[in-house]
Amino acid sequence: KYANSGGVRLGGLVCNERKTDKEYELAESLAGKLGSRLIHFVPRDNIVQHAELRRMTVVEYAPDSKQAGEYRTLANKVHNNAGNGTIPTPITMDELEDLLMEHGIMPTIDETIVGKKAVEA
Q1: CATH, residue 106
Q2: Which of 95, 78, 107 lies closest to 33, judged by CA?
Q3: What mean pLDDT value characterizes the chain?
Q4: What is the pLDDT of residues 78-114, one digit of tens each?
Q5: How many domains does the chain have?
Q6: At what angle do helices 93-102 and 23-33 cross, to 10 degrees?
């Protein structure tokens, strides 16, 4: 509604890996549906928790680690993407659910149970 008047644009999506099935493919599909792109997929690494326990960033804690390199790559991609934003294409909850089902993240919806409480379903 206000996208054309505000001047704010979506530069792209960043996906923080959670180690779930097909999450990279899902993130790319979602970005495409929104008319955007996946800027970077940040792999999950326990070094993040080790740094957090010390109240440090990964770049401070382990500057030569692979994860620190991922963050540097992400920073460069975001910086180099300046001015390339788009107004995202809105999607409905049904479209989002279809995307999740398409990638096998969510089972096919049984329409007969929609809106029913646990004891009714």
Answers
A1: 3.40.50.300
A2: 95
A3: 90
A4: 999 988 889 999 999 999 989 988 988 877 767 777 7
A5: 1
A6: 140
